Amino acid sequence: MHIDFFGSLPLLVIWLALGAIGIAIQAFVRNNTRLVFGYYSGTLVITALLALITSAHKGTTFGGMISIGGFANYFDVLFCGAGLLAMFAARPYLQRENSELDEFYTMLVSAVSGMMLMAHANNLLVLFVGIELMSISFYIMAGFLRTNIRSIEAALKYFLLGAFATGFLVYGMSLIYGATGSLQYDVIASVIGENRSQFPTLLAIGAVFLAVALSFKIAAFPFHQWAPDVYEGSPTVVTAFMSTAGKAAAFSAFIAVFAVLMPASSLMTPQLQLMLAAVAAITMLVGNVTAVAQTNVKRMLAYSSIAHAGYLLMGIVANGEAGYSAITFYVTSYTFMQLGAFVVVGILERGNEENLQIDDYAGLAKREPVLAFIMAVFMFSLAGIPPFAGFFGKYLLFVAAIESGYTWLTIVAVVSSVVSAYFYLGLVVKMYFTEPHKEHSHVSPGLAGITLFVTVAVSIVLGLFTSQLLSIFGTWW
Amino acid sequence: MNYAALIPLFPLIGFVIVAFFGKRLKNEKLIGGIASTAILASFVTAVMVFVGLTNRPEDDRSVIVHVYSWIATGSFSVDVAYQFDQLSILFTLIITGIGFLIHVYSIGYMHGDAGFPRFFAYLNLFVFMMLNLVLASNFLLTFLGWEGVGLASYLLIGFWYDRKFEGTRITWTGDAAMKAFVVNRIGDFGVLLAMFMLFNQFGTLDYATINAQAPGVLTAGGTAVTLITLLLFLGCAGKSAQIPLGVWLPDAMAGPTPVSALIHAATMVTSGIFLIARTNVLFAMSPTTMAVVTGVGITTALIAGTIGIAQRDIKKVLAYSTVSQLGFMFAALGVGAFTAGVFHVMTHAFFKALLFLGAGSVIHGMHHEQDIMKMGGLRKYMPITYRTFFIGTLAISGIPFLSGFFSKDEILWFAFLNGSPVLWGIGAVAAFTTAFYMWRVLSLTFNGTERFDHHHLHPHESPATMTIPLIVLAVLSVFGGLLGVPHVIGHALHFPNLLEHWLEPVFATGMSMLTAHGGDHTSTEVILMTASTVLAILGILLARRIYANGLETASGIAARFTGVYQLLLNKYYVDEVYQMFIAGPILALSRDAMWKIVDVIVIDGAVNGSARIVGASATALRKIQSGVAQNYALIMMAGIVVLVAMVVIPMLR
After folding, report:
1. Are B511 and B594 part of one and the same domain?
2. Does residue B532 share a domain with residue B647?
3. Which among B435, B416, B265, B410 is positioned nearest to B344, based on CA atoms?
4. Nearest Cα residue to B574 out of B163, B249, B153, B264
5. Among residues 403-422 of chain A, which lie with CB inside 8 Å of chain B?
6. 3-state DSSP call for residue B84?
């Protein structure tokens, strides 16, 4: 079997760190939380650096099952970065909730390694392993507050529905294997591209099933219903991580798989595009409209993250490099701004679901001016107001959709953006123009301050230097 | 020359430091020092760029420094790029040079103010935006700076937001800031529309491309170019306080005096001149617009000049004087004397900044008294302020061989040459009023009897941080004019017109499109020059006669011409007219028609209706969100069936 050691370094390092050394530390060192925290932070940093170093080294490894270099490495860096930011935010949060166990960091890094496999997969089975590795880690993390009934409910619900979706994932893979005779991306692509499949209907059903399974992971309509319940019930830092990096990972797989399944020459491409466009349109409408009616900030953000999956799907519908680079840009922006917003929620929240109502944010600008300012930046960016990152991401997606002929989808997207401004800016109004209605104790973010600083900085920088960053992204393809 | 891009960067850094750490620094000298150093650094860099430009061949003195491209998608791209050429570097030197002096002055003037760091943060922000305005290589970046200086101006006019300020329908400084902002919006809207039209015609917003392609793309004298330039001029009239949008500037005096000197005299209000100079090719192509610019400019010069005669607030006199001088500059541009207009921007920046800072020194020494009727005899208490103010007065009045003399006479000469004798006449009368009201201010403030209460007021000279900038500006006001000595004088003395030569390439294309006026008029020029100088001296002598002995003569005259006096004192009732015919009807329309009918019934109906629809759908969607996992799985299953059907059924056909 052909193994390209240099190109595989990021994956090898994170696996060894997890499977060999990490487990040993946890088994033999007592009172190891700090050590494990430091160890895994270092692991993520090194993995990200290795991904950067090996990014120009494109090719395949492990007998062609894993692709290396290029855009997968970009996503590696994004996942490691998001994981690191989530770890910084998680430590003070878990300590406050008296639930800091070293296993948390293990699960987090294991989720990151699953995401990396998803982005690197060049074979449907590898994709399957990646998705499951990430999902199972998420199930555990969702239920991490073991004494909190809502956390347990979230974990169980996520697990049940996730297992249901996995069924379709595997079924879809087997249908595609049956129709094309291979699980390798490149082989499948050539069969579909030349319309050589003997069972085009089975192939189409298989493609739809893959779309269904991935839509479940990104929480697109009608596979989104788990998301508000799970996002609300999970510990807020976990929500912050899985609603952002998890979605980014699913999109990295979405891009790779649908670039294979929807070549321009294939007969089923227009139908798949139309199907995805319908899903995208309904997803953003449902996400934003339902968010309007929420009174709980965490739930509101959960619905907003559903809506953002809808915007991002526009890039898949556009089915071309413009769409994919728009997704890459937007998913990066989204990861930072949404993660930051959830972290702010996590800092303000107190046990037993206190301080989660929108009304609890009244007058926040007077009590916590810095935190309120940061939250306002995230809200503006999420609403897509220039010059923040969210605006340019949306702009790129809209342009990609229009240029591929989906003007109606863009109109739906603009209308639902307008709806979204209502609740994003509503929160800003609440923070700045209303008086606090009860006494609050002062909060201190601790390590999460680093997370907030980085996420705010990125939300602004991505907006100010859009075309520089886009041209850098261009070199990663 | 890439280091040139540092020029706007320094004030930005200064702004960030002072804005975020100003309160923690606590030390006033340190804060003021950081802010001033930032501007000084820009000035030094600008000087280096200037020297760099002079070392290049004359036809290659335009350097575009590309900083980065902000948006580049499809047919639309916006670059953050700065254009360093003869015009922009001249403005940059004025902005940073005078800006630095005013920063230093402010350290003394704002001493002890609770908002000290805030003030310097705003001031640095202003300089940053102003530099973006003049250095931009495209309309969009200029517009960003244009809006930015508007914002900084708003923040600084309303800097003492808790103080009262009197004006027509104005009670607080905040109202004055709001007025400036709102009036400017009208002009900005014009610039925005002009930008849309330009993009539509040229497919780009780059100055270089537009100026180069304009003769080919647009027809000279055509509707398109006239409309574009008129819209641009609307913006210029707003920013530079010309009729009909000039009403905000006198009220802008609510801000601290250094702000009035920097923003509302030396720099921001000249952006209109800058924009026309920058797009001189477009303006030269439309004789209609040029006529409008001339007409508006000269009318403003005269009307504002006459209003200045009757004002009692020292800063308001200077404000009307500024409006009047800006009118002169527009008149110059309108008759195609671009160089003369820009020259007057420069000399005006020197002596008007000097006069404002002098007024600030007086106000500082008089403990915030601004009414010249309650001053008098300050000469012995404030010798330096008096002497520098005296020089400024002579310079603005156009006394020979001071800076104002050269620039004003150049404008008047071109008004005669390219315009008409009538134009010259109006200008000369306006120049006469200038000399008159300036001498009036000088007499009432520094000479004659002391009309203030000695028991409560002890006037004193200002500290060195304030007087040194005054002295520097006084020197510049005396000698600054030598940069643009008119040919008729220069020829005899073998002294070239340096400024005209320097700016020649910038205006070459525009000038070539104007109908050439020529001929040897040197003897006429000398006669006109003498005539206007005599008029200016007459103005001074008349003011001296009336105000030398205090207020008796003046009040006698005012009593005899009550109607005229009231008309001037109330600024021709322009504010009232606007209130009655524009603001009032708009308010009534918006209250009775727009609010009660359109808003309440139509819009609220639609909004509430759509809100109800959104709300109802949200409620329905929430019901589907039952929380029961089995139901979710069921809906997923249904969704899968639909999606499979969507893809497979068309394939089976």
Report:
1. no
2. no
3. B410
4. B249
5. 403, 419
6. strand
User: CB of A370 within 8 Å of any CB in chain B?
Assistant: no
Indicate if B209 and B305 belong to the same structural domain.
yes
Residue type, B642: V
Radius of gyration of chain B (CA): 28
Q: Specify the pairing of strand A66-68 against strand A59-61.
A: antiparallel
> How are beta strands B170-172 and B164-167 bridged, if at all?
antiparallel
CA distance B92 to B99: 10
- Which amino acid is it at A82? A
User: Is there a domain that residue B216 lies in?
Assistant: yes
Whether B593 shows a pLDDT value over 70: the answer reads no
Buried-exposed string A247-267: b where 16+ CB fall within 10 A, e elsewhere? bbbbbbbbbbbbbbbbbeebe
What predicted TM-score, i.e. pTM, was given to this entire model?
Answer: 0.74
Q: Do A289 and B639 touch (CB under 8 A)?
A: no
| A8-49 residue pLDDT tens | 889 988 888 888 888 888 888 877 788 889 999 999 999 999
Cβ of A212 and B647 within 8 Å? no
The 8-class DSSP code of residue A320 comes to: S
User: What is each CA distance from B56 to B63, B84, B505, in whole angstroms?
Assistant: 10, 12, 13
Query: A176-181: which pairs have CB atoms within 8 A and are 24 or more residues apart?
Result: A176/A124, A176/A203, A176/A206, A176/A207, A176/A210, A177/A124, A178/A202, A178/A206, A179/A203, A179/A206
CB-CB under 8 Å, A212 with B621: no
State how many domains chain B has.
3
Quick: pLDDT tens for A291-302: 888 888 999 999
E strands, B48-205, in order: 63-73, 76-84, 164-167, 170-172
Task: Please write the tens of the pLDDT for every residue from B462-514.
Answer: 888 899 999 999 999 998 888 888 777 777 777 788 888 888 888 888 888 87
Give me the residue spans of the domains in chain A. Answer: 267-477
**Preceding peptide of A200 cis, ω within 30°:** no
What is residue B515's predicted lDDT score, i.e. its pLDDT?
Answer: 66
Query: In Å, how far is B84's CA from the nearest CA of chain A?
Result: 23
Structural domain for B584, as ranges: 576-622
Please indicate whether, in this complex, the C-beta atoms of B640 and A465 are within 8 angstroms of each other. no
Chain A partners within 8 Å of B647 (Cβ)? 204-205, 207-208, 268, 271-272, 275
Structure tokens at B454: 């000695």
Q: Nearest chain A Cα to B79, which residue?
A: A467
Q: Is this prediction's ipTM beyond 0.90?
A: no
Residue with tokens 């209502």: A422
Secondary element (H or E) of residue A68: strand A66-68
Instruction: Tell me the chain A residues in contact with residue B639 when contact means C-beta distances shorter than 8 Å.
Output: 212, 221-223
In a domain, B408, yes or no: yes
User: Of the candidates B71, B618, B643, which has its C-beta nearest A208's C-beta?
Assistant: B643
Beta-ladder partners of A61: A66
| B214 and B348 share one domain | yes
- Residue B639 is which amino acid? G
Contact A396, A471 (CB under 8 A): no
Do residues B451 and B588 both lie within one domain?
Answer: no
